[in-house]
Amino acid sequence: MASTIQVRVDDDLKIKSDALFRDLGTDTTTAIRMFLTRALAVNGFPFEIKRANANPYEALTEQEILGRLEQSREHAAQGMYREAKEVSCNMREKYGL
């Protein structure tokens, strides 16, 4: 048995998403089905959701920040670190910077 989901979206959003998914070799209905399937597989949204410009350290207490700094020092002392150039290259690749 199959159920129907109806969603109202802006005409421009529908036109652009239809074109995008067609270019990717699928259609909007299949893309939505893929989204729902992936959401169930990861038990949540299949992508990161966060506020723009959110500071991940804002919610930490001073003690938590000091604990993380200490852990970083311990890792560095054990040789568990990466060169800054490598990290910045990875960030550029990942975020398109």
What series of H and E elements makes up the topology? HHHH
Overall number of strands = 0
Helix content class: 55-70%
Question: Could you tell me how far the N terminus lies from the C terminus, measured between alpha carbons in angstroms?
Answer: 46 Å
Content-based structural category:
mainly alpha
Q: Mean pLDDT across all residues, rounded?
A: 89
Strand content: under 5%
The stretches of 5 or more residues where confidence is low (pLDDT under 50) are none
Form type = elongated
Number of helices: 4
Largest sheet: none
For the CA atoms, what is the radius of gyration? 21 Å
Summarize, please.
This protein has 97 residues and is mainly α.
Task: Name a few traits of the molecule.
single chain, 97 residues, mainly alpha, 4 helices, 0% strand, elongated
Describe the structure.
- By secondary structure, this protein is an all-alpha fold.
- The chain has a domain at 62-95.
- The chain is 58% helix and 0% strand.
- The chain is built from four helices and no strands.
- 0% of the residues are buried.
